[in-house]
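TASK: fixed-backbone design
INPUT:
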């Protein structure tokens, strides 16, 4: 006899323009793990199926990030995981700036904790996920949902403030076919920035948070402005200016990179989201750029665990 567990983790978009390494939102794509827990066995964690994004090349053994996250939880908690068979369904594109690694890590941590019957707090899950991921912005949004502001305290532990995002504002996300690795995107950044640029970003990030929480669309255009990371990454994103021009044509000025890119996210009035997305699909098809366009609210839930244990 075996028992089943399902873990669902949303995609996330971080940075959002000025909030480099601190702002994040959850959006309406998700990775799903279905886990069959064996009543006997040697504690092996076996991936029996991967469908969707990455199904052709993702490892199906202990090299898989989902299993690595499960093992990390097991080792730090002194728990002993039973044998499991795991099926992964990935909606979140890899290396596109939509938090695929964060979703995988968070899913593995919550799966392991649930399997051994442990209650894991959001703070503890964020701490462990940050250790694995290296930065807290995406993992915080995947765990808490909504809009999150994340930083590391002097001890290196994450501190998170979570806001309920207004349903007045939705996103339109353009996802290119090509990938951009986080390491490559980070390598393009400067080690130091002028004080005036730091002040510029602090002000814009504050406006953006207030706009997303208060549903104030009139603050979004200035709220996404950035001087710290997007200008340096432009050479890595050959289609950025084309996509930006198409958004401006549709009277959308609040556009930023999603994470390190190459995906681009725009904030729009929810009543206009489907219209803008349709217009962008048609325009990008005429440009023969092969990009996917989705629209999503900011989802106010994070990881979800459905247990038949």
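OUTPUT:
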């Amino acid at each position: 006899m075996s028992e089943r567990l399902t873990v669902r983790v949303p995609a996330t978009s971080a940075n959002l323009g000025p909030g480099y390494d601190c702002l994040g939102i959850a959006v309406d794509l998700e990775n799903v793990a279905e886990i069959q827990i064996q009543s006997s066995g040697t504690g092996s964690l076996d991936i029996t199926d991967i469908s969707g994004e990455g199904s052709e090349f993702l490892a199906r053994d202990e090299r898989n990030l989902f299993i690595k996250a499960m093992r990390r939880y097991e080792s730090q908690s002194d728990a002993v995981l039973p044998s499991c068979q795991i099926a992964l369904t990935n909606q979140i594109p890899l290396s596109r700036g939509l938090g695929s690694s964060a979703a995988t890590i968070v899913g593995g941590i919550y799966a392991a904790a649930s399997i051994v019957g442990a209650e894991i707090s959001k703070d503890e899950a964020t701490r462990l996920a940050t250790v694995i991921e290296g930065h807290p912005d995406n993992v915080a949004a995947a765990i808490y949902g909504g809009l999150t502001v994340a930083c590391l305290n002097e001890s290196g532990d994450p501190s998170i403030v979570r806001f309920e995002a207004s349903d007045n504002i939705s996103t339109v996300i353009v996802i290119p076919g090509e990938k951009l690795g986080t390491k490559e995107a980070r390598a393009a950044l400067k080690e130091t920035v002028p004080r005036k640029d730091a002040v510029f970003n602090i002000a814009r990030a504050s406006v953006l948070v207030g706009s997303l929480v208060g549903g104030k669309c009139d603050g979004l255009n200035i709220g996404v402005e950035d001087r710290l990371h997007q200008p340096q990454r432009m050479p890595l994103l050959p289609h950025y200016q084309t996509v930006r021009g198409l958004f401006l044509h549709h009277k959308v000025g609040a556009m930023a990179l999603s994470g390190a890119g190459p995906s681009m996210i725009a904030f729009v009035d929810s009543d206009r989201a489907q219209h803008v997305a349709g217009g962008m699909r048609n325009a990008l098809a005429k440009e023969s750029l092969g990009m996917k366009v989705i629209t999503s609210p900011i989802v106010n839930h994070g990881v979800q665990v459905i247990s038949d244990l």
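COMMENT: The CA atoms of residues 136 and 309 lie 30 Å apart.
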